[in-house]
Specification:
With 405 residues, this protein is an alpha/beta fold. The protein is 41% helix and 14% strand. The structure holds D-mannose.
């Protein structure tokens, strides 16, 4: 397993020097300033590589840009509207440029409009740490009474609608503004956040797009780009929906093992792969993460390791982000499945036997409370996660842990 770390670029308050001291082995980054659909120019890619390869005193860092997260898929490609065909060509061109720069793994997602969504970015835990939380009652209050979306009332169970109305009645204007900000800020690294009218306009553009249509558009996207990636020796990996259920009436189609299997089968080349995000998928009771790693493993090109605590067993549930080894996913079993997959690949002589993972998100602890970072991406909380995860990997790989020794 390659221990990687997400770096948002020179404006990230967690520096390349910090990454080195955290002991990371590789970097995950993206050109957040380039508008989805446009080509990533070769010189911009090389510039980011140089930034990663340089410490703050100008000396060389041994780190490289190993994984792109994300090369975003434009809304036009997802809907097949406007310039989508040009955007597909641009996507291929960006892949070619990344390949020429020596980068092989590219993560993307196919979530319409919003990427990850939370209602609270700093939920206080009993020990004083803070974490990100999704409160379904708050979310329903936003949907029903702030966004005032038509049809919202039928998208939630009646008891949630009732609780949401009660809660909305007690919210101050500041509470409403904060909730709105939190929900629409689901675009990490993006320079802009959407206004309510932007959200309404974007939602309206999906009125006629069913989940089946969106799935078929994803398949067409992959039919166009995956063979190209394959030819270049690259690996694409689709990030799951976060959370893994429909929000704001939008179709979401990458939430379950079956969703993944369907997409992997539809374009059956190794370059069409999976970002196994245990935190996103783990919100859904039926998603068995170690089992998914076992069954989809040969196409898993990238791992996000984190954990969540579901607050009910309903499909649409509140949840919060726990420390990496707490929560609903058995991290030891998952890492053990990853190590077994790596051993299989090694035996088969695969060049991609070492799978990159990153400690995904982290709670804000200690000095994290005084350093502003991207929501969910503190320095120390993530470092703690990384340290725990690498400890499991080391323990499981140790020869003394092999049966019979
Ligand atoms: C959240 C992230 C996601 C992820 C994209 C990948 O913290 O895991 O935003 O980067 O969905 O395309």
């Amino acid at each position: 397993m390659q221990q990687t770390w997400r770096w948002f670029g020179p404006n990230d308050s967690v520096s390349i020097d910090d990454l080195l001291q955290a002991g990371v082995q590789g970097v995950v980054s993206a050109l957040h300033h380039i508008v989805p659909g446009m080509v990533w120019p070769a010189d911009e890619i090389v510039k980011r590589q140089k930034e990663i390869a340089t410490m703050s005193d100008g000396s060389a860092s041994p780190l490289h840009w190993d994984v792109v997260e994300s090369l975003p898929v434009s809304e036009d490609i997802k809907r097949q509207t406007g310039d989508w065909q040009q955007h597909l060509e641009n996507y291929q061109q960006s892949l070619t440029h990344l390949h020429d720069a020596g980068i092989k793994v590219v993560c993307y997602n196919f979530m319409p409009v919003l990427d990850w969504t939370r209602t609270d970015l700093a939920y206080r835990l009993p020990n004083g740490a803070t974490c990100m939380r999704f409160d379904v009652v708050d979310f329903a209050a936003f949907d029903l009474a702030i966004l005032c979306r038509e049809g919202a009332a039928t998208d939630f169970p009646a008891d949630i609608v009732e609780q949401a109305n009660v809660r909305f009645a007690t919210m101050s204007d500041d509470d409403k503004a904060a909730l709105t900000r939190n929900i629409v800020s689901g675009l990490p690294g993006a320079a802009t956040t959407m206004s309510l009218d932007d959200v309404r306009r974007h939602l309206g553009a999906y009125d006629d797009i069913s989940p089946e249509q969106l799935r078929s558009n994803l398949m067409e996207f992959l039919a166009a780009v995956a063979p190209h990636a394959e030819q270049l020796g690259m690996r694409l990996c689709c990030h799951p929906d976060d959370p893994p259920f429909s929000l704001l009436g939008l179709p979401r189609i990458m939430s379950t093992e079956k969703d993944y299997q369907t997409i992997l089968d539809a374009v059956n080349v190794p370059a069409n792969g999976v970002t196994l995000c245990s935190g996103s998928l783990g919100v859904r009771v039926a998603n068995d993460l170690p089992g998914m790693m076992k069954r989809l493993g040969d196409r898993v090109h990238f791992l996000h390791l984190r954990n969540v605590q579901r607050e009910s067993d309903q499909l649409i549930t509140s949840f919060h982000e726990t420390a990496h080894l707490e929560g609903g996913t058995d991290m030891v079993a998952l890492i053990s499945a990853v190590l077994r997959e790596e051993a299989k690949r090694r035996a088969a002589g695969r060049a991609d036997a070492t799978i990159p993972f990153r400690p995904d998100h982290g709670q804000n602890i200690l000095d994290d409370h005084t350093r502003t970072t991207q929501p969910g991406y503190p320095a120390i909380g993530r470092l703690k996660g990384l340290a725990e995860l690498r400890g499991i990997e080391l323990a499981l790989s140790h020869r003394l842990s092999e049966p019979g020794s």
